[in-house]
Fold:
Amino acid sequence: MQEKKAIKTVAIIGGTGHQGPGLALRWAKSGQYRVIIGSRQTTKAEIVAAGLNATLKQDLVTGMANQEAAGIADIVVLTVPYSAHASTLKSIRSQLQGKMLVDVTVPLQPPKVSRVHIPAGGSASAEAQALLGQDVRVVAAFQNVSAIHLPHLDQPLDCDVLVCGDDKEAKAEAIALAEAAILRGIDAGPLQNAVVVEGPTAILIGINQRYDVKGAGLKITGLD
Structure:
């Protein structure tokens, strides 16, 4: 008899923002993960979780404070603005040790968010790795997926997820997360390459503005 695969718990830190709720909705609907919305304010996380459960018509998503969510989770996904990146990571650093972090953060610099900004650490994900230490397996992913389209479960997303990281198992887990969200995950190399993966988000924002479209994305050709 085949042993049933254990369901892992995913905590989305900063999950009440733009991308967090849509990702939570897709992962919860897949049935492959337990999903927690994390926020600095427990009440805010609970309100967002309740809204997602109403959409799903099932109680599949839980809301918690960031520290509690990160402590319970097997996989932590960070979806915060760059301005809150370092402070949020510092607040959950102890809870992340020995775990995997999927960093979705893009180092945008308002008000000129359509211009690529390369931070001092090379990329947001590289800065996360330096701050957290080598006991945390940091992966960069989901930066180029439009938050506008994520909540629409009946619409296909014509966008690939580029995954960068130095740990093969962590990258494979991130690719599995992409597939659970009905997206194609692609191994884009080591964490050093995250600077190239994060940068196109600013370019896509500019394309959306200039061409009056919503949710432009990236697609890798030649793999089929």
Remarks:
- DSSP finds nine helices and eight strands in the chain.
- The first helix runs from residue 19 to 30.
- The chain has one domain: 8-211.
- The first strand starts at residue 8 and ends at 13.
